[in-house]
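Lecture notes, part 5. Sequence design as translation. It can be helpful to think of inverse folding as translation between two languages: the language of shapes and the language of residues. The source text, in structure tokens, appears below.
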């Protein structure tokens, strides 16, 4: 069985798409090869790095990528994780099936919190929601 290529697409490729890429490559290494990118370039969110490290996954070597940086890869699936990416998802030639699975934006939610601990709760919740989604990817994608 050959790996299927998945692109997780989000606005800045700083948090949700990075988490989804890491979870997919960790939980389904034989079945999928995951990549992530954004419609604009930012940086990997330090809080995302922190909560993923707590789950045993290292994002510290990751960087924010634009779609153009991975355009030579043929994707089987493109999964948008936010409304902005869904609306601005470029056309990819080839067999890619585009799926939308939205998740809350932890950085936006964290801005309203009074302290680091409260802010991290949003990152932890979304991290765990993305993990659950990724755990179920075979049943979602194979139907």
């Amino acid at each position: 069985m050959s790996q299927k290529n998945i692109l997780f697409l989000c606005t800045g490729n700083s948090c949700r798409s990075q988490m989804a890429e890491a979870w997919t490559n960790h939980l389904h290494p034989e079945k999928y090869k995951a990549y992530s990118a954004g419609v604009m370039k930012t940086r990997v969110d330090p809080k995302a790095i922190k909560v993923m490290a707590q789950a045993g996954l290292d994002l510290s070597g990751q960087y924010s990528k634009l779609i153009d940086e991975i355009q030579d890869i043929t994707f089987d699936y493109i999964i948008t994780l936010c409304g902005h990416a869904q609306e601005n998802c470029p056309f990819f030639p080839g067999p890619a099936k585009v799926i939308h699975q939205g998740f809350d934006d932890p950085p936006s939610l964290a801005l309203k919190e009074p302290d680091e601990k409260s802010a991290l709760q949003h990152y932890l919740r979304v991290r765990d929601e993305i993990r659950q989604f990724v755990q179920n990817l075979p049943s979602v994608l194979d139907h």
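The translated text above is only one of many valid answers, since several sequences can fold into similar shapes. The chain has a mean pLDDT of 90.
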